[in-house]
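Researcher: I need the complex structure. Ligand is adenosine monophosphate. Inputs:
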Amino acid sequence: MKLSDCDRNDGKLLTEDEALAILLAEAVAINDIEELATGCVLGRILAHNLIAPINVPAFDNSAMDGYAVNSPDIAASGESCLPISQRIAAGHPGTPLTPGTAARIFTGAPLPPGADTVVMQEHCRAIHGKVCLNGPLKAGTHVRPAGEDIRQGSQVLAAGIRMRPQEMGLAASLGIAMLPVFRKLRVAILVTGDELQTPGEPPEPGKIYDSNRYLLSGLLASLGCQLIDTDTVPDHYDATVEALSEAATAADLILSSGGVSVGEEDHVKTAIEHLGQLALWRIAVKPGKPLAYGDIGGTPVMGLPGNPVSLLITFCLFARPLILRLQGRSRLTPTVIRARAAFERRNPIPRREYLRARMIRGEDGGTTITTHPRQGSAVLSAACWADCLAIVPADSSISPGAPIDIIPFSELLF
Ligand code: AMP
Ligand code: MG
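Model: Output:
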């Protein structure tokens, strides 16, 4: 027997896809909607489709500083000179263009009725109240027609998107002052472990500082959740039951850290089974095999492993899509990118492996991937060094130059 075969005696491990299917099967988006000012919706999830109440731009306007003319007034060849009959700046509608004249016009200013084209000032000569330019002119040049960006009545944003700065700007361009968004998801974090100390306290023998509370609070903040912080739970069955049942009444989702494996001090799984039901436990990923999921009185609970890197990765793979679904988001999966390995890795076990890795721009302009030398599930410094996770399929090996799928952290932490 090879040592690597030890991992085959795990009993039934769910694949990542099976686990995700179970997680998402019953997860329903919170249906509480609030109206927020357009300036306050960054990172929030749009609750209704947005239909354009107006055209954008609302009127034909100039894309350049120059002169507005009626194109037939310009000779097809040679120079034409037209008197300048008015001056139109942005925000100040002019008057209908007198036939046979030009209007001085600036970027964003309304095109006067009777004009169909703008000539850049760099292509004109202005002398003695006249502007001279060479034909031919193509009608419509440098004019931004009404409705070019958005047509009145069209759907501009779909329910379920996360509002980014560009969507905020777009809503504002339509004159929309308030937007319907889902309320923030309330997520309770329940950190377990007798060994944990709070940063700021003097170090005690045998204790470690709690990093997962901070890791989780950052992850949840980056996903736009409202955190319900609870006291650290000792490694004690009754205390775990009490903390879980309390959190279940206050939160939309409970995430716990640690105590989810098979040790005698691991009580999260049995406490979930006692208070509600367990829907899955243990998944064929590395790191992060022990992961429990179930519900307590209808409140979903996910027990994440205690090792900080395992917690980070299982959060990204399993808690994140669940949270996104509960938040009402339409897109749950991150973009996976195909790159080229600059490393060697054997993964002879039936678990998909996620390596802490870095993207490097290769000489040919493609992306090559290097991995951190220490891939232990407690080595948080490797996760800080990394900007992506490199995926090594189960029962496989990767050689330098081989194609490899990666997920940038930038795809996971929002
Ligand atoms: P557990 O899943 O509780 O068996 O913990 C696995 C490992 O992760 C142990 O070495 C724990 O000390 C460590 N660990 C658990 N919780 C935390 C935490 N909040 N911060 C840092 N390390 C932790
Ligand atoms: Mg523990």
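Model: Summary of the prediction. Residues 1-10 have pLDDT under 50 and may be disordered.
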